[in-house]
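Pasting as-is:
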Amino acid sequence: MGIIVTIIIGAIAGWLAGKIVEGYGFGLIGNIVVGIVGAVLAGWLLPMVGISLGGGGWIAAIIQGTIGAVILLFLIRLFKKV
């Protein structure tokens, strides 16, 4: 059941990040991947800078995944222009 929840959260986070960072959407599978990688990135980066979303749950996971996916999309945009 955990993998299904991860995929759903990744899809939502990737879709939200695609809406926030205009011009970047990778389709359903791409958004899931961006969301999952973004969640991992945010899970590593946010505690390092002292940001805690408190507790757990769906909402915190989606917010964290979205933040990470936005960072990831920004980095992709940055390197794609170079």
